[in-house]
Design goal:
This protein is mostly beta strands. The chain contains 1 helix and 11 strands; from the N terminus they run H-E-E-E-E-E-E-E-E-E-E-E. The protein has one domain: Beta Barrel (Porin), CATH 2.40.160. A hairpin with a 4-residue loop joins strand 9 and strand 10.
C-alpha cells in the first residue's frame, strides 16, 4: 500500500507539471530489456535464474522547468521475466537440457525526475523515479531439450506454452501491478537522436499473497534509442 501511495504522489506531480513547465518536448524510444528476477522460496534465495531479452518501445514527454530540471513521463510496452535452465542426465551417456522462459508483457508508466547537463548542442542527462507496470499478458514456455553431448542425437520436442494468470488470488501466477524504481543515464545528439541506458528495480512482491520468505521481484537493464520531435 505504501508503494501505491508513493506512485500516486508521483502521478499527481506529473499531472500538475504542465502548469509549471516552461517547455514541453515529445519523443519516442525503441530498444530491448535484459530482465531477471530476485526470487525467494521458503526463505531461500533462488540463484540459478538467467536473464532473458525482451522488447522495449514507447513514447515519452518531458516537462522542462528550467534548462537543467525536468519531469519525464510516458507509456512503454516492456517485456520482462526470466529464464531457467535444467540439465537432466539420461543414463545413456548424454544429457538433455530443458529451458523454461517466463515472459510478462507490461504497459509501464514512468514518472522520473530528469537532470539535464547541456554540452553545447548536445545533452547528457540522468533519470530517477518510480514506475508503474501493468501486466497485460504473459506466458511460460518450455523449450524441448537438446542433447549437448552428442551432436548426432537431438530431441526436438514440441514446445509447451501456458498462459499466465494475473491477480491476487491463490490460483494466480503473478500480481498484475508492478511498482518499481528506475535509474538511467542518456545522451542526446544535436540531430534529436539519442541513446539511453536504464535499470529498473522491482519493489513489489509479485507472488500472490506472498511474504518476505516467498517473493518474486523483477529487475531489468534496458537500452534504447530515443528521438525527440
Amino acid at each position: 500500500m505504501k508503494l501505491v501511495k508513493l506512485f500516486i504522489v508521483a502521478a499527481v506531480l506529473a499531472v500538475t507539471a504542465p502548469a509549471f513547465a516552461q517547455d514541453v518536448n515529445f519523443g519516442v524510444l525503441a530498444g530491448f530489456n535484459s530482465s531477471n528476477a530476485s526470487v525467494k522460496i521458503a526463505g531461500n534465495d533462488v540463484d540459478d535464474l538467467k536473464s532473458k531479452l525482451g522488447t522495449n518501445i514507447g513514447a515519452f514527454v518531458d516537462f522542462n522547468f528550467s534548462e537543467k530540471l525536468a519531469l519525464e513521463t510516458g507509456l512503454q510496452f516492456e517485456q520482462k521475466g526470466h529464464k531457467y535452465e535444467e540439465e537432466i542426465a539420461s543414463g545413456f551417456g548424454f544429457s538433455i537440457k530443458f529451458t523454461t522462459k517466463t515472459i510478462i508483457n507490461y504497459l509501464t508508466i514512468p514518472v522520473n525526475a530528469r537532470l539535464n547537463l547541456p554540452l553545447g548542442e548536445k545533452n547528457l542527462y540522468f533519470l530517477a523515479g518510480p514506475t508503474l507496470g501493468i501486466a497485460i499478458s504473459g506466458k511460460e514456455k518450455l523449450d524441448g531439450g537438446d542433447n549437448d553431448d552428442d551432436d548426432d542425437m537431438e530431441f526436438d520436442e514440441e514446445d509447451d506454452e501456458d498462459k499466465l494468470k494475473f491477480g491476487n488470488e491463490d490460483d494466480c501466477d503473478y500480481r498484475r501491478l508492478n511498482i518499481g524504481a528506475r535509474f538511467g543515464v542518456g545522451f542526446e545528439f544535436s540531430n534529436k537522436l539519442g541513446i539511453r541506458c536504464t535499470y529498473d528495480l522491482g519493489l513489489s512482491n509479485l507472488v500472490p499473497k506472498g511474504d518476505s520468505d516467498n517473493s518474486y521481484k523483477s529487475k531489468a537493464f534496458g537500452i534504447a534509442l530515443t528521438y525527440k520531435f
